[in-house]
Amino acid sequence: MNNRYFRLGVSMPGVNQPMHRFGEMAKIAEESGFDSVWGYEAYRNGFVQQATSAVTTSKIDLAIGLAAAAQRSPFEMSNAAMDVNELSNGRLRLVIGPGGASFNEFFNGVEIDRPATRMREYIKIMKMYLEHARSGAQFDFEGEFYKFCIPPMNPFGQRPFPMPDFPLYLGAIQPAMLRLAGELCDGIMGFLPTPELMKNHLIPGLAEGATKANRDQGEVDIVQYIICSPHEDRETALYRARIQVGTYVCHPLGDFVLKRDGLLGERDKVMAGLMEGGPPALAECVPDVLLERYAVVGTPGECREQFKYYQEFVPHAVLHTPYVPPLKEEESYDTYVRICKTFAR
């Protein structure tokens, strides 16, 4: 890969940090020379996270990866994104997706079957509304899952549109979502990347969609979360990484990657340990082979050396800070600061 196009980001630990800290963490990433800093939604609101980051930074791209469509209409998603893009002077990057299965089914009480069809309609409506905000163009759309139209009379007028459009990404790993992103979006976001996955699955899927829309697949930014845990004490680094890797390989979307890598058996052992002992058991039941395949972990020097591997095939790498339970607030924050220090430019 030509490193001229390489971009480096870092994710802020979203679940276990107080809200006032996101602006502080984004500033640390900017001062460390990162290209992008990422928030995401799991209880916390990604738009609020990056709104606070917008007022403490001035150059770094502020990304939300990802914001859940299940809990917002396309209209609300677009308005929230335009607000943060305005506040940050045009630095927002937005990744959308249907949302996590458990959050949708239990917390939001909504269906997410046929995600590619739902997201196609959702993206189309977002683009319609953005065009209406920009130019006043009129639209009327009724799909299978969503509908949208411009009111015949609107006493509030049009919303302000002071900034250019923000890049719109799709959380994508399955074939249909990759094709959709290649056709309609500015980028994709995924996790657990490998060279084989990139070469034989992600890029061909994007290219198929891009060809349908007469686009160049190279125009689509490929963002991948890479779990990262540096620490001078290797055991501390390994402990934090095992918790995050174990949680991610047990996620339903992880099946697709683990199967391609021939590691479903190792995943099953992790799942058994998780079911028997709960999240704390991940510190013991995640084998080294999963850490070696899906994480950058060890002393700062070891992490920098391991990361060279990803620089060869990931165009936009986001160093992903471990944050899931039983990791505590201070552990995740400490790891985040160490990532920024280890990979500072």
Helix content: 40-55%
Class by alpha and beta content: alpha/beta
Number of helices: 14
H-E order: EHEHEHEHHEEEHEHEHHHHHEHEH
Low-confidence stretches: none
Apparent shape: globular
Query: What strand line-up does the widest sheet have?
Result: 1-2-3-4-7-8-9-11
What's the pLDDT, averaged over the residues? Answer: 94
Name the assembly state.
Answer: single chain
Strand content: 15-25%
How large is the radius of gyration?
A: 20 Å
Total number of strands: 11
Task: Explain how this protein is built.
- This protein has 345 residues and is α/β, with parallel strands linked by helices.
- The protein is built from 14 helices and eleven strands.
- It has helices at 21-31, 46-54, 74-87, 101-108, 115-135, 175-184, 195-212, 234-249, 254-260, 264-277, 282-285, 288-294, 300-311, 329-342; strands spanning 7-11, 36-39, 61-68, 92-97, 140-142, 147-149, 168-171, 187-191, 221-230, 295-298, 316-320.
- The strands form two sheets. Strands 1-2-3-4-7-8-9-11 form an eight-stranded parallel barrel, surrounded by seven helices. It has a two-stranded antiparallel sheet with strand order 5-6.
- Helix 1 (21-31) packs across helix 2 (46-54).
- The mean pLDDT is 94.
